[in-house]
């Protein structure tokens, strides 16, 4: 199983929007997907897929992370929800999601004051422990974790569990402050861990056109960062309406909206391209090769499934 976390230095970068479309693209590429929403915000991945009611469920991922008595004798599959089941390559497949929960607001105190010493001593390792104990790797091809847009315990758990991160960012002169914050975040993450954290790439979002400013490109290259070969325009109404409907942007454009514009359907191709790039990077392909391969049609460059 391959894994990565979506993260950013603050809100408004489109982290969850990109993630919601990307997990659907993984599914449509024939991969068994598990997405974890570990962000406490109410408008995140959980809401995007119509699972807001799960935020009040009597069992949450945090119960397992904290080794709470509520999780005794329970299985992690009890908190997994399946959405958008459809036939892919002759097989019925859905997207499995572990939704966010209102209890995440108290994650820090529940871990810090935990009765179990191993939980208190290694707070950032608890999500990875839970996933290993549940043998999640045996059931999925790819794990995607939607991390909070701030440095906190939930982000630490997401990064430590995934070991790879994908960073959506507003790569425009107007978003220069946001990019500087993103670079600071990446430097902090790279220096914080005893393992080699892999930055899969930076995803351009909220673009007015399809080209990145040369100064910004050079700044990213100086920091050894690769720009993913997919660009997402500032189409707020399309992404907002798919969130409002509680469906993926693919389902919204193909099944819900009556007359989608060409620029909207073009964005679905960008998600497919991003999926190919991410998958190839997760499988060890060098950044430049992954960019080139992602730009080739799937029929000419089939992505190998795990």
Q: CATH architecture, please?
A: 3-Layer(aba) Sandwich
Secondary structure tally, helices? 13
State the order of secondary-structure elements, H for helix, E for strand.
EHEHHEEHHHEHEHEHHHHH
In total, the number of strands is: 7
So what's the CATH class? Alpha Beta
Amount of helix? 40-55%
Number of domains: 1
Uncertain regions spanning at least 5 consecutive residues: 301-306
Which whole number gives the mean pLDDT?
86
Largest sheet: 7 strands, mixed
Question: What topology, given as strand order, has the largest sheet?
Answer: 3-4-2-5-1-6-7
Please characterize this protein's 3D structure.
By secondary structure, the protein is an alpha/beta fold. It has a single domain, classed as P-loop containing nucleotide triphosphate hydrolases (Rossmann fold), CATH 3.40.50.300. 41% of the residues lie in helices and 14% in strands. Strands 3-4-2-5-1-6-7 form a 7-stranded mixed sheet, sandwiched between helices. Strand 3 (81-88) and strand 4 (91-98) form a beta hairpin. Helix 1 (15-28) packs across helix 12 (262-282) and helix 12 (262-282) runs antiparallel to helix 13. The model is unreliable at 301-306 (pLDDT under 50).
List the SSEs and their pairings.
Layout: E1 2-6, H1 15-28, E2 33-37, H2 45-48, H3 61-65, E3 81-88, E4 91-98, H4 107-112, H5 117-121, H6 126-133, E5 142-146, H7 153-162, E6 164-169, H8 176-192, E7 198-204, H9 214-222, H10 236-245, H11 249-256, H12 262-282, H13 287-294
Helix pairs in contact: 1-12, 6-7, 10-11, 12-13
């Amino acid at each position: 199983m391959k894994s990565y976390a979506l993260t950013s230095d603050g809100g408004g970068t489109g982290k969850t929007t990109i993630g919601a479309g990307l997990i659907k693209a993984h599914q449509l590429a024939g991969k068994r997907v598990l997405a974890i929403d570990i962000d406490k915000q109410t408008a995140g991945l959980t809401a995007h897929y119509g699972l807001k009611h799960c935020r009040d469920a009597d069992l949450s991922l945090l119960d397992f992370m904290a080794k709470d008595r509520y999780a005794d004798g329970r299985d992690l599959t009890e908190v997994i929800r399946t959405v958008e089941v459809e036939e892919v390559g002759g097989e019925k497949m859905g997207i499995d999601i572990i939704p966010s929960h209102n209890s995440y607001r108290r994650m820090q105190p529940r871990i810090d004051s935990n009765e179990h010493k191993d939980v208190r001593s290694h707070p950032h390792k608890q999500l990875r422990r839970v996933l290993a104990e549940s043998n999640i790797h045996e059931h999925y091809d790819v794990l995607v974790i939607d991390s909070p847009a701030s440095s906190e315990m939930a982000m630490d758990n997401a990064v430590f569990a995934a070991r790879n991160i994908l960073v959506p960012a507003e790569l425009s002169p107007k978003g220069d402050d946001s990019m500087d914050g993103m670079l600071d975040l990446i430097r902090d993450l790279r220096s914080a861990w005893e393992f080699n954290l892999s930055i899969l790439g930076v995803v351009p979002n909220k673009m007015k056109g399809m080209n990145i400013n040369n100064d910004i490109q050079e700044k990213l290259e100086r920091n050894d960062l690769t720009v993913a070969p997919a660009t997402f325009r500032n189409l707020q109404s399309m992404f907002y309406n798919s969130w409002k409907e509680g469906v993926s942007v693919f389902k919204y454009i193909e099944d819900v909206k009556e007359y989608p514009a060409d620029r909207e359907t073009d964005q679905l191709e960008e998600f497919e391209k991003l999926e190919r790039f991410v998958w190839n990077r997760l499988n060890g392909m060098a950044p430049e090769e992954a960019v080139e391969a992602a730009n080739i049609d799937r029929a000419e460059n089939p992505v190998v499934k795990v």
